[in-house]
Design brief:
The chain is mainly beta. It has two helices and 56 strands.
Length: 445
């Protein structure tokens, strides 16, 4: 057949071919054992059926709000746009494009790549054999879908994961949201954001930068290897197999439900809570300049070169709750162990600090609770204080303004204290001694 074909409320079938365009409106194309549509094939309106074995040389396109249910085999590409719905219960051998509110559904398969731009994948056992890429925002994955070569979010793309994905997921620099969804394979995050209301990433999550803003669970190990990974305020990352860092910065401002193992190349900071046992080998910056950080279980410094940076931002020993804390504090609900050498660095001149050595606070000895420990503190002898001539917020040197002052660390029960010690200058000490002797002499008389 060499002319165009129009099917309205009827059926186009056979084993031959249509060389021109084919337009179907509430009709059926039944390819039988082999039918070829050489021109562009367009399905208009709803209630269209594509069955049998059909070859569409220039692909199949769905017009606005059109719907097609397909069985059998379609050899060619598929373009679902403008709120159209293609239910693939058979096999589509070519590529699929889902855009502008379109939906790809069904229990069949797409043999080529699948590209989704502001569209929906709603499978009922659908298999996407090629690479699946979600472009732009406004994308949804629901139902049950298998992606043989994995799902990728393009830079800046957003996907609502509301269904079950069998395969891997690369969030990249995109945004993953959703409720009740799941991913069976490994997931990666590189600069993007995971903001699930609920859901499960069933295998590992490898992070090279990005943030976690919602809830949800990672069943496998969460690894962070470079750049910064932030668990945002009010977020809860449940890491069933824990978090292991091999570099970069981990900022916990929300809740990390799980264990933490931070190696020597990692910096840990934030004002949130880590519920599981934690080991830190690298740098520990509690708070967010400054702030209070909580470890519900045990905390151990195991690296031999661990550094704790402690900051004071006001002339006071009274602290405030986050986010208004004026000095760093670490709350440990379990045991605290300085397994190997751990050094405390003091910071008094960070941005926003109001510490001034000339303030009356420094006219007498003071103490701050660095570690508030419920359990037992061990190996306190491995905790060392870095000697320095510290600057205040006005760039005044401590040794110049307070030559009679010093800092030290001590234990009070199992709490670790930072002490400011005021030692009178020699002439003052002599005067105090003389006054004491005079008072004693008067009492004897």
């Amino acid at each position: 057949m060499t002319r165009n074909a129009t099917v309205g409320n009827g059926t186009l079938s056979g084993t031959g071919s249509v060389s021109g365009t084919t337009g179907v409106t509430s009709g059926t194309v039944n390819g039988g054992t082999g039918f070829t549509l050489t021109g562009v094939t367009t399905f208009n309106s709803t209630s269209n059926i594509l069955s049998g074995t059909v070859t569409s040389t220039n692909g199949v396109t769905l017009a606005a709000a059109a719907a097609v249910t397909q069985t059998g085999t379609l050899t060619g590409n598929l373009n679902t746009t403008n709120t159209g719905t293609f239910t693939a219960n058979g096999a589509v051998t070519g590529d699929a494009t889902v855009a502008s509110g379109g939906t790809l559904a069904g229990s069949g398969s797409i043999g080529g790549t699948t590209g989704v731009t502001s569209g929906t994948i709603n499978g009922t056992g659908l298999t996407l054999t090629g690479v699946t890429t979600f472009n732009s925002t406004g994308n949804t994955l629901s139902g049950t879908t298998t992606s043989t070569n994995g799902v990728t979010l393009a830079s800046g793309a957003a996907l609502a994961l509301n269904g079950a994905l069998t395969g891997t997921l690369a969030v990249g620099n995109g945004t993953l949201t959703g409720t009740g969804g799941s991913v069976s394979g490994a997931a990666t995050l590189n600069g993007g954001n995971i903001n699930l209301t609920s859901g499960t990433l069933g295998s590992t999550l490898a992070v090279t930068g990005g943030s976690w803003s919602g809830a949800g669970t990672v069943s496998g190990l969460v690894t962070s290897s470079s750049s910064t990974f932030t668990i945002n305020s009010a977020a809860n990352l449940t890491a069933s197999s824990g978090v292991s860092t091999t570099g970069g910065t981990l900022t916990v401002n929300g809740t990390l439900t799980g264990t933490l193992n931070a190696n020597v190349s990692t910096t840990i900071n934030g004002t949130g809570t880590i519920t599981g046992a934690a080991t830190i080998e690298g740098i520990h910056n509690p708070g967010n300049s400054p702030g209070i950080q909580t470890f519900s279980s045990d905390l151990a410094y195991t690296g031999g070169a661990s550094v704790v940076n402690w900051e004071l931002a006001a002339n006071t020993v009274a602290n405030n709750p986050n986010p208004s804390a004026v000095y760093d504090q670490i709350i440990v609900g379990g045991d605290l162990d300085f397994t190997n050498l751990t050094t405390v660095n003091l910071v008094f001149n960070a941005t926003g600090s109001g510490v001034v050595w000339g303030d009356s606070l420094w006219d007498s000895s003071q103490s701050w609770v660095l570690y508030n420990v419920t359990g037992t503190t061990t190996n306190f002898g491995n905790l060392d204080l870095t000697a320095a001539n510290w600057l205040d917020s006005d760039s005044n040197l401590f040794g110049t303004v307070r030559p009679d002052g010093s800092f030290s660390l001590s234990l009070s029960g199992n709490n670790v204290l930072l002490n400011y010690n005021l030692v009178p200058e020699p002439n003052v000490a002599a005067l105090l001694g003389a006054l004491g002797s005079l008072a004693l002499l008067r009492r004897r008389r």
